[in-house]
Amino acid sequence: MEMPNTPLEPVDEDWSSALAIVAHPDDLEFGSASAIARWTAQGKRIVYLLATRGEAGIDGMVPEEAGPLREQEERDSARIVGVDTVEFLDFPDGMLEYGLPLRHDFAAAVRRHKPEVVITGNFQDSFGPGMLNQADHIAVGRAVLDAVRDAGNRWVFRDLLDQGLEPWGGVHTVLVSGSPKGQHAVNIDDYLAVGVRSLEAHAQYLAGLGGSWPPAEEILESVARMFGPRLGCKYATAFEVISLRPPW
């Protein structure tokens, strides 16, 4: 894939808490984990929320076995990059649909954890020319964008008030990894190796992909090396930055 040579702007790191919302175990490890390792090393608090348990992700393993296994792999992986809190919803892997149920549960999590930043994955139809995105990723990312606004509106999902979840309008930025619209990036020169270890923690999932897949280190390094020089470093993780601050 040919990458543009336009410089990337550094992601603003003047924040202290984030909630990462993705569809599956491994989504963050293929996208954001090295940057998350950098941020937790800075003392930032980051929580993971996964819409599914990834139960449909291993062809040779029935969902009833794959779900608990992948959940544990994700918890182990998160711990490597300094994340202790990993929550799972029970939406069906491979069959996510954009709509009110996703928005409701994501908004509840935003109200519960009160992040300043929300991290998610690419929700465009593709990652670039010839690289089709997956339906679950698209549904989750689009629901995330609406949920961060829903979380601040007292009169949307009023049942959350009955659960003691008061509105939270403190999310000022959504960071989208893997987006073809990314114009910002994070220097991960010191954290790529940690990100690789976090992906390698998904050992049985990676084994289920088959021998045609390159090693985790090769995958992550090749992508990070494309973005690094555009940020003025060796390795970088790129993000689309969506600001929720007023334009004035």
Could you explain how this protein is built, in words?
- This protein is of the alpha/beta class and 248 residues long.
- It has one domain (13-208, 236-243): Rossmann fold (3-Layer(aba) Sandwich), CATH 3.40.50.
- Helices cover 39% and strands 18% of the residues.
- The protein has 9 helices and 10 strands.
- An 8-stranded mixed beta sheet has the order 1-9-10-8-5-2-3-4, sandwiched between helices. It has a two-stranded antiparallel ribbon with strand order 6-7.
- The mean pLDDT is 95.
Number of strands: 10
Q: Please mark out the parts with pLDDT under 50 across 5 or more consecutive residues, or reply none.
A: none
Number of domains in the coordinates?
A: 1
Backbone CA Rg: 17 Å
Shape descriptor: globular
Q: Would you state the CATH class?
A: Alpha Beta
Largest sheet: 8 strands, mixed
Strand order of the largest sheet: 1-9-10-8-5-2-3-4
Helix proportion range: 25-40%
Structural class: alpha/beta
Summarize the entry for a quick read.
With 248 residues, the chain is an alpha/beta fold. The chain has helices at 27-31, 33-41, 63-80, 100-113, 135-150, 159-162, 192-200, 203-208, 216-231, and strands at residues 9-10, 17-22, 45-50, 86-88, 117-121, 126-128, 131-132, 173-177, 184-187, 236-243. The strands form two sheets. An eight-stranded mixed beta sheet has the order 1-9-10-8-5-2-3-4, sandwiched between helices.
Topology summary:
Blueprint: E1 9-10, E2 17-22, H1 27-31, H2 33-41, E3 45-50, H3 63-80, E4 86-88, H4 100-113, E5 117-121, E6 126-128, E7 131-132, H5 135-150, H6 159-162, E8 173-177, E9 184-187, H7 192-200, H8 203-208, H9 216-231, E10 236-243
Parallel strand pairs: 1-9, 2-3, 2-5, 3-4, 5-8
Antiparallel strand pairs: 6-7, 8-10, 9-10
Helix pairs in contact: 2-7, 3-7, 4-5, 7-9
